């Protein structure tokens, strides 16, 4: 299986001496759907930032879609990120006052595609997340669950190799959260490789693979037959 993510001995120390990641080895293969779980402060978001190339490790190696990120300049790294990675956050991060269609099209800003093409692809992505009838709605005219589906459409519109989601259901009621998770499962069945952070043990239990982090280390990984430590 081809690795989309390959981390070896990754350490991340923040200024002030916090060792947020303390030697992470993690490989995610093409087409996997991985849940990242663990207590608050255990390093989950830090890990997602490193995997998403938003940040570089203090030591260790990070390869994304076969590219060793240490070998890339910041400029090339942003290009790799724009091409290969989609992000979804707990707080949606949509542009206020801008229609859903344009929020999604923004996900293709660095693709070099002409605007009309970007908007057509954005309309398709919104249809995929079940919002074909909401393309003109601005964020404040959408429900929380719909906002998150717009954010997911924006993350997947460029068909990234990897979709990263940090607590995508954290701000949603359980029904909307359920719909968002169903959508992630569907996108995964269609071929997307996804890593999703969640606090929700029920949501995590339904994911095909769960990686548990504690104190910046992987303490359990169901892919390696380790029993989940509680
Ligand atoms: N920019 C930063 N500068 C210094 N320390 C940081 C920074 N970001 C995170 N930390 C520290 O690194 C550790 C891991 O933080 P991280 O945000 O990765 O945790 P988390 O597992 O995502 O927690 P939560 O479930 O609460 O979101 C924490 O102890 C945190 O205080
Ligand atoms: Mg976090």
TrEMBL record:
<dbReference type="GO" id="GO:0022857">
    <property type="term" value="F:transmembrane transporter activity"/>
</dbReference>
<dbReference type="InterPro" id="IPR003439">
    <property type="entry name" value="ABC_transporter-like_ATP-bd"/>
</dbReference>
<protein>
    <submittedName>
        <fullName>ABC transporter ATP-binding protein</fullName>
    </submittedName>
</protein>
<dbReference type="GO" id="GO:0005524">
    <property type="term" value="F:ATP binding"/>
</dbReference>
<dbReference type="GO" id="GO:0098796">
    <property type="term" value="C:membrane protein complex"/>
</dbReference>
<dbReference type="InterPro" id="IPR015854">
    <property type="entry name" value="ABC_transpr_LolD-like"/>
</dbReference>
<keyword id="KW-0547">Nucleotide-binding</keyword>
<dbReference type="InterPro" id="IPR003593">
    <property type="entry name" value="AAA+_ATPase"/>
</dbReference>
<dbReference type="GO" id="GO:0005886">
    <property type="term" value="C:plasma membrane"/>
</dbReference>
<feature type="domain" description="ABC transporter">
    <location>
        <begin position="5"/>
        <end position="230"/>
    </location>
</feature>
<dbReference type="InterPro" id="IPR017911">
    <property type="entry name" value="MacB-like_ATP-bd"/>
</dbReference>
<dbReference type="InterPro" id="IPR017871">
    <property type="entry name" value="ABC_transporter-like_CS"/>
</dbReference>
<keyword id="KW-0067">ATP-binding</keyword>
<dbReference type="InterPro" id="IPR027417">
    <property type="entry name" value="P-loop_NTPase"/>
</dbReference>
<dbReference type="Pfam" id="PF00005">
    <property type="entry name" value="ABC_tran"/>
</dbReference>
<dbReference type="GO" id="GO:0016887">
    <property type="term" value="F:ATP hydrolysis activity"/>
</dbReference>
<keyword id="KW-0813">Transport</keyword>
């Amino acid at each position: 299986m081809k690795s989309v993510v390959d981390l070896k001995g990754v350490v991340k120390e923040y200024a002030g001496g916090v060792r947020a990641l303390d030697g992470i080895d993690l490989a995610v293969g093409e087409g996997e759907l991985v849940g990242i779980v663990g207590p608050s402060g255990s390093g989950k978001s830090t890990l997602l930032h490193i995997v998403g190339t938003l940040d570089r490790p203090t030591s260790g190696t990070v390869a994304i879609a076969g590219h060793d990120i240490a070998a890339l300049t910041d400029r090339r790294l942003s290009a790799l990120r724009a091409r290969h990675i989609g992000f979804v956050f707990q707080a949606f991060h949509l542009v206020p006052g801008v229609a859903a269609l344009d929020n999604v099209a923004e996900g293709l800003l660095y693709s070099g595609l002409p605007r009309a093409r970007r908007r057509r692809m954005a309309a398709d992505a919104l249809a995929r997340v079940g919002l074909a009838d909401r393309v003109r709605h601005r964020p404040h005219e959408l429900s929380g669950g719909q906002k998150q589906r717009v954010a997911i459409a924006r993350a997947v519109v460029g068909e990234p190799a990897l979709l990263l989601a940090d607590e995508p259901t954290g701000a949603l009621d359980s029904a909307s959260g359920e719909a968002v998770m169903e959508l992630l499962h569907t996108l995964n069945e269609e071929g997307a490789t996804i890593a999703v952070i969640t606090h929700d043990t029920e949501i995590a239990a339904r994911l095909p693979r769960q990686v548990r982090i504690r104190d910046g280390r992987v303490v359990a990984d169901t892919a390696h037959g380790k029993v989940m430590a509680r």
